[in-house]
Amino acid sequence: xxxxxxxxxxxxxxxxxxxxxxxxxxxxxxxxxxxxxxxxxxxxxxxxxxxxxxxxxxxxxxxxxxxxxxxxxxxxxxxxxxxxxxxxxxxxxxxxxxxxxxxxxxxxxxxxxxxxxxxxxxxxxxxxxxxxxxxxxxxxxxxxxxxxxxxxxxxxxxxxxxxxxxxxxxxxxxxxxxxxxxxxxxxxxxxxxxxxxxxxxxxxxxxxxxxxxxxxxxxxxxxxxxxxxxxxxxxxxxxxxxxxxxxxxxxxxxxxxxxxxxxxxxxxxxxxxxxxxxxxxxxxxxxxxxxxxxxxxxxxx
Length: 301
Hints:
- By secondary structure, this protein is of the alpha+beta class.
- It folds into three domains: 2-89, Rossmann fold; 96-113 and 182-284, D-amino Acid Aminotransferase, Chain A, domain 1 (2-Layer Sandwich), CATH 3.30.470.20; 117-179, ATP-grasp fold, A domain (Dna Ligase, domain 1, 2-Layer Sandwich).
- 32% of the residues lie in helices and 27% in strands.
- The chain contains nine helices and 16 strands.
- Helix 1 crosses helix 9 (278-289).
- The longest helix is centred in the last third of the chain and has 14 residues, at 227-240.
Protein backbone atom coordinates (compact mmCIF):
# COMPACT_ATOMS: atom_id res chain seq x y z
CA UNK A 1 0.00 0.00 0.00
CA UNK A 2 0.98 3.60 -0.55
CA UNK A 3 0.25 5.60 2.62
CA UNK A 4 0.33 9.38 3.07
CA UNK A 5 1.02 10.75 6.57
CA UNK A 6 -0.21 14.32 6.90
CA UNK A 7 2.21 15.95 9.34
CA UNK A 8 4.08 19.22 9.46
CA UNK A 9 7.21 17.67 10.97
CA UNK A 10 8.62 14.28 9.88
CA UNK A 11 10.91 14.27 12.96
CA UNK A 12 8.06 14.16 15.48
CA UNK A 13 8.00 10.89 17.42
CA UNK A 14 4.47 9.93 16.33
CA UNK A 15 5.09 10.73 12.66
CA UNK A 16 8.41 8.90 12.64
CA UNK A 17 6.96 5.80 14.32
CA UNK A 18 4.03 5.60 11.90
CA UNK A 19 6.35 5.84 8.89
CA UNK A 20 8.65 3.18 10.38
CA UNK A 21 5.75 0.84 11.17
CA UNK A 22 4.34 1.19 7.64
CA UNK A 23 7.70 0.49 6.00
CA UNK A 24 8.38 -2.49 8.29
CA UNK A 25 5.17 -4.02 6.93
CA UNK A 26 6.25 -3.50 3.34
CA UNK A 27 4.25 -0.37 2.59
CA UNK A 28 5.39 2.86 1.01
CA UNK A 29 5.00 5.74 3.50
CA UNK A 30 5.36 9.39 2.62
CA UNK A 31 5.20 12.29 5.10
CA UNK A 32 3.41 15.30 3.60
CA UNK A 33 3.37 18.80 5.10
CA UNK A 34 -0.34 19.61 5.00
CA UNK A 35 0.25 23.37 4.70
CA UNK A 36 2.34 22.88 1.55
CA UNK A 37 -0.55 21.15 -0.21
CA UNK A 38 -2.79 23.06 -2.59
CA UNK A 39 -5.88 21.78 -4.30
CA UNK A 40 -7.70 21.73 -7.59
CA UNK A 41 -11.38 21.52 -6.66
CA UNK A 42 -13.28 20.35 -9.71
CA UNK A 43 -16.23 18.04 -10.28
CA UNK A 44 -14.66 15.23 -12.28
CA UNK A 45 -10.97 15.23 -11.36
CA UNK A 46 -10.25 16.65 -7.88
CA UNK A 47 -6.52 16.70 -7.19
CA UNK A 48 -3.92 17.70 -4.62
CA UNK A 49 -0.65 19.33 -5.59
CA UNK A 50 2.46 19.36 -3.38
CA UNK A 51 5.68 21.22 -4.05
CA UNK A 52 4.91 21.34 -7.76
CA UNK A 53 3.80 17.71 -8.23
CA UNK A 54 0.38 16.08 -8.32
CA UNK A 55 -0.20 13.55 -5.53
CA UNK A 56 -1.58 10.31 -6.97
CA UNK A 57 -1.79 6.61 -6.25
CA UNK A 58 -2.32 6.74 -2.47
CA UNK A 59 -4.37 3.98 -0.88
CA UNK A 60 -4.69 5.49 2.59
CA UNK A 61 -3.99 8.71 4.47
CA UNK A 62 -3.12 9.10 8.17
CA UNK A 63 -4.03 12.60 9.39
CA UNK A 64 -1.73 14.01 12.09
CA UNK A 65 -3.18 17.50 11.91
CA UNK A 66 -2.18 19.98 14.63
CA UNK A 67 -4.93 21.97 16.34
CA UNK A 68 -3.58 25.28 14.97
CA UNK A 69 -4.05 24.12 11.36
CA UNK A 70 -7.35 22.24 11.78
CA UNK A 71 -9.26 24.29 9.19
CA UNK A 72 -6.75 23.91 6.37
CA UNK A 73 -5.70 20.41 7.40
CA UNK A 74 -9.24 19.03 7.31
CA UNK A 75 -9.80 20.74 3.94
CA UNK A 76 -6.81 18.83 2.51
CA UNK A 77 -8.01 15.60 4.12
CA UNK A 78 -11.48 16.17 2.64
CA UNK A 79 -9.85 16.47 -0.78
CA UNK A 80 -8.15 13.08 -0.27
CA UNK A 81 -11.57 11.65 0.62
CA UNK A 82 -13.05 13.11 -2.59
CA UNK A 83 -10.25 11.29 -4.45
CA UNK A 84 -11.39 7.98 -2.85
CA UNK A 85 -8.32 7.68 -0.61
CA UNK A 86 -9.12 5.87 2.66
CA UNK A 87 -8.68 8.14 5.73
CA UNK A 88 -7.70 6.58 9.07
CA UNK A 89 -9.82 9.31 10.67
CA UNK A 90 -12.35 11.20 8.57
CA UNK A 91 -12.31 14.98 8.19
CA UNK A 92 -15.82 15.39 9.63
CA UNK A 93 -14.94 13.32 12.71
CA UNK A 94 -11.76 15.35 13.32
CA UNK A 95 -13.67 18.66 13.04
CA UNK A 96 -16.33 17.31 15.41
CA UNK A 97 -13.77 16.25 18.04
CA UNK A 98 -11.75 19.49 17.77
CA UNK A 99 -14.82 21.58 18.66
CA UNK A 100 -14.83 21.12 22.45
CA UNK A 101 -18.37 22.48 22.90
CA UNK A 102 -19.87 20.48 20.05
CA UNK A 103 -18.16 17.27 21.17
CA UNK A 104 -19.41 17.64 24.75
CA UNK A 105 -22.95 18.28 23.50
CA UNK A 106 -22.82 15.15 21.31
CA UNK A 107 -21.46 13.04 24.19
CA UNK A 108 -24.09 14.46 26.56
CA UNK A 109 -26.90 13.63 24.14
CA UNK A 110 -25.76 9.99 24.08
CA UNK A 111 -25.56 9.71 27.88
CA UNK A 112 -21.75 9.68 28.29
CA UNK A 113 -20.58 10.73 31.78
CA UNK A 114 -19.22 14.29 31.77
CA UNK A 115 -18.16 16.87 34.36
CA UNK A 116 -20.88 19.49 34.90
CA UNK A 117 -20.09 22.08 32.24
CA UNK A 118 -21.31 25.63 31.72
CA UNK A 119 -21.05 27.90 28.68
CA UNK A 120 -21.97 31.56 28.61
CA UNK A 121 -21.48 34.74 26.59
CA UNK A 122 -22.36 37.66 28.85
CA UNK A 123 -20.51 38.81 32.02
CA UNK A 124 -23.90 39.36 33.73
CA UNK A 125 -24.35 35.59 33.95
CA UNK A 126 -21.11 34.82 35.80
CA UNK A 127 -22.57 34.38 39.29
CA UNK A 128 -25.21 31.88 38.16
CA UNK A 129 -22.69 30.15 35.88
CA UNK A 130 -20.38 29.50 38.85
CA UNK A 131 -23.30 28.23 40.93
CA UNK A 132 -24.39 25.96 38.04
CA UNK A 133 -21.14 23.94 38.12
CA UNK A 134 -21.12 23.60 41.90
CA UNK A 135 -19.08 26.67 42.87
CA UNK A 136 -15.35 27.02 43.40
CA UNK A 137 -12.91 25.44 42.93
CA UNK A 138 -13.72 25.12 39.25
CA UNK A 139 -11.90 24.79 35.93
CA UNK A 140 -12.04 27.39 33.16
CA UNK A 141 -11.04 26.29 29.64
CA UNK A 142 -10.49 28.16 26.41
CA UNK A 143 -12.39 26.38 23.65
CA UNK A 144 -9.35 26.63 21.38
CA UNK A 145 -6.78 25.44 23.93
CA UNK A 146 -4.68 22.27 23.52
CA UNK A 147 -2.20 20.30 25.66
CA UNK A 148 -3.37 22.06 28.81
CA UNK A 149 -2.77 25.57 27.44
CA UNK A 150 -5.65 27.92 28.25
CA UNK A 151 -6.85 25.83 31.21
CA UNK A 152 -7.11 27.58 34.59
CA UNK A 153 -8.05 26.25 38.04
CA UNK A 154 -9.89 28.93 40.01
CA UNK A 155 -9.79 27.96 43.69
CA UNK A 156 -12.13 30.67 45.02
CA UNK A 157 -15.32 32.33 43.77
CA UNK A 158 -13.55 35.70 43.53
CA UNK A 159 -10.75 34.18 41.44
CA UNK A 160 -13.29 32.43 39.21
CA UNK A 161 -15.19 35.69 38.64
CA UNK A 162 -11.99 37.57 37.79
CA UNK A 163 -10.71 34.97 35.32
CA UNK A 164 -14.10 34.54 33.60
CA UNK A 165 -14.51 38.33 33.32
CA UNK A 166 -11.01 38.62 31.85
CA UNK A 167 -11.61 35.90 29.24
CA UNK A 168 -15.03 37.23 28.26
CA UNK A 169 -13.59 40.75 28.10
CA UNK A 170 -11.15 39.46 25.48
CA UNK A 171 -14.10 37.97 23.52
CA UNK A 172 -12.72 34.47 24.18
CA UNK A 173 -15.04 31.47 24.15
CA UNK A 174 -14.71 29.49 27.37
CA UNK A 175 -16.14 26.47 29.16
CA UNK A 176 -16.57 26.42 32.93
CA UNK A 177 -16.42 22.94 34.49
CA UNK A 178 -16.72 21.40 37.91
CA UNK A 179 -13.42 20.40 39.49
CA UNK A 180 -13.27 16.66 40.20
CA UNK A 181 -11.49 16.64 43.61
CA UNK A 182 -11.33 12.87 43.89
CA UNK A 183 -9.27 12.54 40.69
CA UNK A 184 -6.34 14.08 42.63
CA UNK A 185 -4.66 15.53 39.55
CA UNK A 186 -4.71 12.24 37.61
CA UNK A 187 -6.52 11.19 34.47
CA UNK A 188 -6.61 8.10 32.28
CA UNK A 189 -5.71 8.17 28.58
CA UNK A 190 -7.42 5.32 26.72
CA UNK A 191 -6.05 4.70 23.23
CA UNK A 192 -8.74 3.44 20.86
CA UNK A 193 -8.15 1.70 17.54
CA UNK A 194 -11.19 0.37 15.69
CA UNK A 195 -13.67 0.36 18.60
CA UNK A 196 -11.20 -1.34 20.95
CA UNK A 197 -9.06 0.01 23.80
CA UNK A 198 -5.58 -1.21 22.79
CA UNK A 199 -3.69 0.58 25.59
CA UNK A 200 -4.31 2.78 28.61
CA UNK A 201 -2.13 4.82 30.94
CA UNK A 202 -2.61 6.95 34.02
CA UNK A 203 -1.22 10.48 33.78
CA UNK A 204 -0.38 12.19 37.07
CA UNK A 205 0.16 15.93 37.38
CA UNK A 206 3.42 17.07 38.91
CA UNK A 207 3.27 18.49 42.48
CA UNK A 208 1.56 21.88 42.60
CA UNK A 209 -0.03 21.38 39.16
CA UNK A 210 -3.57 20.14 38.39
CA UNK A 211 -3.09 19.53 34.65
CA UNK A 212 -1.87 16.00 33.97
CA UNK A 213 -0.66 16.60 30.40
CA UNK A 214 2.78 15.11 29.77
CA UNK A 215 3.69 18.39 28.00
CA UNK A 216 3.12 20.11 31.36
CA UNK A 217 5.54 17.83 33.20
CA UNK A 218 3.09 15.10 34.17
CA UNK A 219 4.18 11.47 34.55
CA UNK A 220 2.62 8.36 33.00
CA UNK A 221 2.37 4.74 34.05
CA UNK A 222 0.47 1.62 33.06
CA UNK A 223 -3.01 1.16 34.52
CA UNK A 224 -5.74 -1.47 34.39
CA UNK A 225 -9.06 0.13 33.53
CA UNK A 226 -12.51 -1.07 34.60
CA UNK A 227 -15.10 -2.50 32.17
CA UNK A 228 -17.17 0.69 32.64
CA UNK A 229 -14.18 2.89 31.76
CA UNK A 230 -13.42 0.72 28.74
CA UNK A 231 -17.03 0.91 27.52
CA UNK A 232 -17.17 4.68 28.09
CA UNK A 233 -13.97 5.29 26.10
CA UNK A 234 -15.06 3.10 23.17
CA UNK A 235 -18.52 4.72 23.04
CA UNK A 236 -17.04 8.24 23.16
CA UNK A 237 -14.72 7.54 20.20
CA UNK A 238 -17.57 5.95 18.26
CA UNK A 239 -19.88 8.92 18.86
CA UNK A 240 -17.19 11.22 17.43
CA UNK A 241 -16.85 8.86 14.45
CA UNK A 242 -13.13 8.27 15.05
CA UNK A 243 -11.33 5.02 14.18
CA UNK A 244 -8.32 6.13 16.24
CA UNK A 245 -8.70 8.32 19.31
CA UNK A 246 -7.24 9.18 22.68
CA UNK A 247 -10.08 9.41 25.20
CA UNK A 248 -9.22 11.21 28.45
CA UNK A 249 -11.21 10.04 31.47
CA UNK A 250 -11.34 11.10 35.12
CA UNK A 251 -12.38 8.75 37.92
CA UNK A 252 -15.14 10.57 39.80
CA UNK A 253 -17.40 9.52 42.67
CA UNK A 254 -20.24 9.01 40.18
CA UNK A 255 -18.23 6.93 37.70
CA UNK A 256 -15.95 7.73 34.77
CA UNK A 257 -16.32 11.16 33.18
CA UNK A 258 -14.89 12.07 29.76
CA UNK A 259 -12.80 15.21 29.60
CA UNK A 260 -11.83 15.13 25.93
CA UNK A 261 -11.69 12.95 22.82
CA UNK A 262 -8.45 13.56 20.94
CA UNK A 263 -8.38 12.82 17.19
CA UNK A 264 -4.56 12.86 16.89
CA UNK A 265 -3.32 11.29 20.14
CA UNK A 266 0.44 11.29 20.63
CA UNK A 267 2.24 7.94 20.57
CA UNK A 268 5.36 8.60 22.63
CA UNK A 269 3.76 8.66 26.08
CA UNK A 270 1.47 5.67 25.54
CA UNK A 271 4.12 3.51 23.83
CA UNK A 272 6.66 4.30 26.55
CA UNK A 273 4.23 3.65 29.43
CA UNK A 274 2.75 0.44 28.00
CA UNK A 275 5.69 -0.87 25.91
CA UNK A 276 3.24 -1.62 23.10
CA UNK A 277 3.67 -1.09 19.35
CA UNK A 278 0.71 1.26 18.94
CA UNK A 279 1.96 2.64 15.60
CA UNK A 280 2.11 -0.91 14.26
CA UNK A 281 -1.44 -1.61 15.42
CA UNK A 282 -2.63 1.52 13.58
CA UNK A 283 -1.02 0.26 10.34
CA UNK A 284 -2.50 -3.21 10.94
CA UNK A 285 -5.94 -1.60 11.25
CA UNK A 286 -5.47 0.24 7.94
CA UNK A 287 -4.47 -3.04 6.25
CA UNK A 288 -7.74 -4.65 7.38
CA UNK A 289 -10.07 -1.67 6.97
CA UNK A 290 -8.78 0.36 4.02
CA UNK A 291 -11.06 0.21 1.00
CA UNK A 292 -11.05 2.87 -1.72
CA UNK A 293 -14.10 5.10 -1.39
CA UNK A 294 -15.09 3.62 2.01
CA UNK A 295 -15.29 7.05 3.64
CA UNK A 296 -18.76 7.33 5.14
CA UNK A 297 -19.09 11.05 4.52
CA UNK A 298 -17.09 11.25 1.26
CA UNK A 299 -15.88 14.75 2.11
CA UNK A 300 -19.30 16.08 3.07
CA UNK A 301 -20.16 18.17 6.12
